[in-house]
């Protein structure tokens, strides 16, 4: 009798175990499969990118990152998404001087454009405080001035969605959701945003021709400053904004404030090195006409103001870049027509296709 009861108990527990396993397996629909299909990048005209070896772009990973980028669930009160401060129509930047967070509070610096991130090789944010793009992706979520949410809460909200659990499985081979996977998915999507279809790019490919003003602006952009021959002296922009992505992967003090007036120590806050005081990341000029206001604090509203600053508005400080200091006394000798031509060239860096590309728009 005892043996029969023991056998009955074993059978019952076996049924319970099998049933529970079956229910656990059923949480992932049969049509959801791990998909490692590589995401195809088009970067003609740019140098080959350095894709993170531990986070290659996949079709499903980019799709998941795009969903997260546009989802307001990532904010504390469900009113703000990454895209709220990095809008596609304005070159994935914010035209407010300072972005407004969920508590109605302004951020401390102007929101940077998120374009061609694969060609960014010296950390992220104006001061470089995030080593990897995936690190940068999580900080605004947790910032009290921005999305003001905790990572455990984000994970909990995403876990309550079967749609997200399915997509995490497709992207990573498991429906387990954690903050690292969230960051890597966001990194994949942001790394997929590539700008290389501006008039500048098309002119290089022989598809269009610059106007006389645009061509002269290009010449001024690349021509060096020459105090001995003012009539042929250039705007000397290419020293800092060089190469196909129009930046130099450096942090520089571009003469905005004197030591006494400097309100933001910039890179020094990260390195704790006094020689980095007032230095900020040299940003890409691609889509610059779409991304006002300008500088880390958004103090300039127009490109004309920016050109005037470099032409005759530089302020001396102990860490100002030497090349800029060399031009400070005389200015760049730019005439009113020079300024017009230079701005017209800068406008050729605008990628209208990027602003309307469905691959980067909201999936919701």
Query: What's the overall average pLDDT, rounded?
Result: 93
At CATH level 2, the architecture of the largest domain is: Orthogonal Bundle
Q: What Rg is obtained from the alpha carbons, in whole angstroms?
A: 26 Å
Helix proportion of residues, in percent? 25-40%
Strand count, sense and closure of the main sheet? 2 strands, antiparallel
CATH classification, class level of the largest domain: Mainly Alpha
Main structural class: mainly alpha
Strand order of the largest sheet: 1-2
Shape: globular
Which stretches are poorly predicted, pLDDT < 50 over at least 5 residues?
1-26
Number of domains: 2
Give me the CATH fold name of the largest domain: Cytochrome Bc1 Complex, Chain D, domain 2
Strand content: under 5%
CATH superfamily caption of the largest domain: Cytochrome c-like domain
């Amino acid at each position: 009798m005892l043996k029969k009861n023991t056998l009955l108990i074993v059978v019952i527990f076996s049924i319970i175990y099998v049933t529970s396993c079956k229910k656990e397996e059923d949480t992932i629909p049969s049509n959801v499969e791990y998909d490692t299909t590589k995401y195809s990048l088009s970067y003609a005209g740019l140098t080959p990118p350095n894709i993170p070896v531990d986070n290659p772009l996949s079709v499903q990973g980019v799709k998941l990152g795009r969903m997260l980028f546009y989802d307001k669930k990532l904010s504390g009160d469900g009113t703000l998404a990454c895209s709220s401060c990095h809008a596609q129509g304005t070159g994935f930047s914010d035209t407010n001087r300072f972005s407004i967070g969920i508590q109605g509070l302004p951020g401390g610096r102007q929101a940077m454009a998120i374009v061609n991130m694969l060609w960014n090789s010296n950390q992220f944010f104006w001061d470089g405080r995030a080593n990897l793009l995936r690190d940068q992706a999580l900080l605004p979520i947790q910032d009290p001035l921005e999305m003001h949410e905790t990572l455990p809460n984000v994970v909990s909200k995403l876990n309550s969605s079967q749609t997200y659990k399915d997509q995490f499985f497709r992207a990573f081979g498991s429906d387990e959701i954690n903050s690292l996977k969230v960051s890597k998915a966001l990194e994949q999507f942001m790394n997929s945003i590539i700008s290389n279809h501006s008039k500048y790019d098309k002119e290089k490919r022989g598809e269009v021709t610059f106007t006389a003003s645009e061509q002269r602006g290009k010449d001024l952009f690349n021509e060096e400053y020459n105090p001995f021959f003012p009539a042929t002296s250039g705007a000397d922009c290419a020293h800092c904004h060089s190469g196909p992505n129009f930046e130099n992967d450096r942090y520089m003090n571009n003469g905005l404030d004197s030591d006494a007036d400097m309100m933001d120590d910039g890179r020094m806050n990260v390195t704790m090195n006094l020689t980095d005081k007032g230095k900020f990341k040299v940003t890409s000029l691609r889509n610059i006409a779409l991304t006002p206001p300008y500088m880390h604090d958004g103090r300039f509203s127009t490109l004309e103001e920016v050109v005037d600053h470099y032409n005759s508005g530089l302020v001396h400080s102990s860490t100002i870049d030497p090349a800029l200091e060399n031009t400070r006394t005389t200015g760049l000798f730019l005439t009113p027509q020079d300024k017009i031509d230079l701005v017209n060239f800068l406008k050729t860096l605008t990628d209208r296709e990027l602003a309307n590309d469905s691959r980067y728009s909201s999936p919701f």
